């Protein structure tokens, strides 16, 4: 489960970008306005990429995605890492861009140091070389936002810079390098302050758990009375456990390129239960 700090940073970045996109949906030139209306935030979908040469299939779920209705892949992704164990943002960003063959145009990665107050931002983009072999070269821009003591490093003139054209790899964009150049900008200073706010919010939340402001000490909680028909019976618990075990097994099986979805369905507890009911009828 994600922390309060993680979620505040995720939705600040996603919300600020979407807020600026909304301005282009109602203003600007007609062409850009129509384009912006087709770009929407899609949350955290499970992205399943085509198999590589070895048959390996990558699956990732970004923290936030922005997807144009005509595009095969989202144009801009956001990933935030705040964990004792590194999320491997560099590898993850590279996978997104590489596995989509460059159709994911920008991966914004915010790395919040777990042991101090530092934070850094990197933006990964595809850069197609003009070599005869057509090799893709991936560029990364990394900026430190906050030092280990919690001091915001950047000023208001520096920041995350995207363009409207970053949000979709479609013909109308790729065929005209001078179109959809409208900027999306978030200052590093504002983002740095937000990361410090998010950390403090986590500290405050934990303090409030220890000091309850609503119930007085000794207040007695009443047990919940189950709604009619909502009582949990042992058979339900067994079915739920079987369902969880099957979901875990299915997740592992899907990593196998020879995995057969129809055969796997026969192990689904819901499917088995339906077959039993049919035989009873």
In short:
By secondary structure, the chain is α+β, with helices and mostly antiparallel strands. It has helices at 4-26, 30-37, 89-99, 171-174, 188-210, 234-253, 261-265, 269-280; strands spanning 39-43, 47-48, 59-60, 64-68, 76-81, 106-112, 119-128, 136-146, 159-163, 183-187.
Give the N-to-C terminal Cα separation: 42 Å
Number of helices: 8
H/E series, N to C?
HHEEEEEHEEEEHEHHHH
Strand content: 15-25%
Largest sheet descriptor: 6 strands, mixed
What is the radius of gyration computed over CA atoms, rounded to a whole number of angstroms? 24 Å
Rounded average pLDDT: 79
Q: Spans of 5+ residues with little confidence (pLDDT < 50)?
A: none
Topology, number of strands: 10
Helix content: 25-40%
List the strand order in the largest sheet: 1-4-5-6-7-8
- Structural class from helices and strands? alpha+beta
Shape: globular
């Amino acid at each position: 489960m994600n922390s309060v700090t993680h979620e505040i940073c995720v939705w600040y970045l996603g919300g600020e970008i979407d807020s600026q996109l909304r301005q282009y949906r109602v203003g600007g030139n007609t062409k850009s306005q129509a384009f912006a209306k087709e770009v929407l935030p899609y949350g955290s979908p499970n992205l399943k990429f085509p198999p590589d040469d070895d048959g390996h299939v990558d699956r990732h779920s970004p923290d936030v995605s922005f997807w144009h209705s005509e595009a095969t892949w989202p144009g801009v992704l956001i990933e935030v890492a705040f964990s004792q164990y590194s999320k491997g943002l560099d590898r993850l960003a590279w996978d997104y861009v590489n596995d989509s063959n460059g159709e994911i145009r920008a991966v914004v990665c915010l790395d919040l140091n777990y042991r101090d107050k530092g934070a850094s931002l990197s933006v990964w983009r595809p850069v197609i070389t003009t070599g005869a072999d057509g090799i893709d070269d991936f560029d990364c821009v990394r900026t430190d936002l906050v030092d280990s003591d919690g001091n915001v490093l950047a000023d208001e003139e520096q920041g995350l810079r995207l363009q409207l054209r970053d949000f979709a790899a479609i013909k109308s964009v790729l065929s005209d390098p001078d179109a959809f150049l409208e900027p999306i900008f978030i200052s590093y200073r504002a983002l740095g302050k937000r990361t410090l706010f998010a950390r403090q919010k986590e500290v405050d939340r934990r303090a409030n758990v220890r000091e309850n402001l609503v119930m007085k000490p000794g207040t007695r909680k009443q047990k919940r009375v189950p709604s009619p028909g909502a009582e949990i019976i042992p058979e339900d618990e067994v079915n739920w456990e079987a369902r969880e075990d099957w979901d875990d097994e299915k997740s592992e099986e899907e990593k196998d390129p020879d995995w057969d979805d129809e055969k796997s369905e026969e192990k689904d507890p819901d499917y088995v239960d339906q077959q039993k009911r049919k035989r009873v009828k």
